[in-house]
Amino acid sequence: MRVKCLFVAAVLVAMPSLAVAAVVDTDDLTIDIYASFEFEYQLDDEGNGDPNASFDSDQIDIVFNLKKDNFRIGADVVLEHGVATEDGRGNVGLSFGFAEYAASEKFKLRVGKYLTPYGIHNPLNSYKSGFHSVKIPLATNKPDKLSGDGFRFFPRRQVGIAILGTLPAGDRTLDYDVLLTNGDQEETNPFEEDNNSQKALSARVVYEATDELRVGLSSHLDSVDEGGERRSLSSVSAHAQYDARKVRFWTEVTMGELEGPAGAPDVDQLGGFVEFSYLFKDSVAPYIQYQYLETQAAIDQSADLWIAGASFRFKKYAVIKLENAYVSGSRDNEEFEDIASRDYSEIRAAVVLGF
Amino acid sequence: MTRTRSFVRSAVLGLVGIGLAATALSQGGEAYVVVVNQSNTMSSVEAKELSRMFLKKVARWEDGEPILPVDLVLESAVRERFSEEVHDRTVAAVNAYWQQRVFSGRSIPPPERASSDEVIEFVRSNPGAVGYVSARTDVSGVKVLTID
Lengths: 355, 148
Fold this sequence. Notes:
The complex is a heterodimer of chains A (355) and B (148).
Chain A: H1 2-14, E1 24-25, E2 29-42, E3 54-68, E4 71-84, E5 89-102, E6 108-115, H2 138-141, E7 157-169, E8 172-181, E9 200-208, E10 213-226, E11 229-243, E12 247-258, E13 267-278, E14 284-296, E15 303-315, E16 318-329, E17 343-354
Chain B: H1 2-21, E1 32-36, E2 44-45, H2 47-54, E3 68-69, E4 71-72, H3 77-87, H4 91-103, E5 112-113, H5 116-125, E6 129-134, E7 143-147
Parallel strand pairs in B: 2-7, 3-6, 4-5
Antiparallel strand pairs in B: 1-6, 1-7
């Protein structure tokens, strides 16, 4: 254990020197760059984490915004896991790319590719300075990684048309997004061609109740490829974010229903998380997060996850995170079938710079 | 039980490690005044309303003119004081807010200028502009707003 801790400490000391970033900024064209470097180490012999203590050149995001009059082009080019396409490693992607016409702040029209506006974390993209934990909550964003029966409540990204804006609501504001898209599918590239006539519909509203409190609802309706069949998917989420100067409390509960295979009942799924943190000296924020996932299928494939950690903002644009995640699954959860104890712990660290 | 102890021990070690590395960010900054274009009809503004303008939560002045906020750069001591007093947040916290908006594609932050003189020039040239500058800056050609 002592050797493990020394190793982790050495990695944390070395990490800040490994990230590089730059920024270009004019009034019409802005380029923002975000980089994250991660380290993961599973403490137990068995588990679904990383037993080999891996470094991960997680990603570099380059966001371009070109604005002229009422028009804007926004694009986020993401380079993941130390891209080396000649070796088929890593990933180059377009996280979002759209053209926008803003009639006003109340009404904007977009065409292109978007992050699905669902819940708290997906609209934040993978921008890890935007939240405390090293990874976005699996229970609400990637249930299939926690449960053998798990299905995603929504696709991370979609292509289509969108309207969005910020409406006055008394002396407060209401952000809204409505997307009509191809949805998700496997037969064709959903960012180019729809393989079915049913469009997906996503919507999200967030009401700024006070300067500190934002509450929201999200929904997603689609028809997805599952096990070679087209099955309808409907999801809904309620979320709240309390961000005071010192105290932060975030929570989300999301429910989904996936149509069952022919003759089989529908599969319901419930996921959620709560996270609490307190900011010391405007720089160090210890946090604790709990996630829960339940799939109401014939067998119990539930899972839960506790995370305790701290994020340390050592520059206005730079954050170090360190956390310990304890993951456990139910006896019949297929994701944990190779783990005798049905649980494991993993240390995770990240250095994040955003300009 | 061993597993629980292991979890608690590594979590505590992590928190202590980061805590030891922490240093208090300096408070204070430099005094400022809020400036708008000469054509602006307002003479005062509430701090909360001003904050919402700079966070682009309100888009237009009372006369319908689009609001064009302009920030000083992150490193500015003037911005530090402005952020503490008007946003009731550190510059880092406000920067994090904008980065969330940028990296999610939602919106883009106000333009930044490197010096108070450049802010004055921006405000002088744009009817809807609002900025803040060092209290020692020559503000001729623009209008100073008082904060209620």
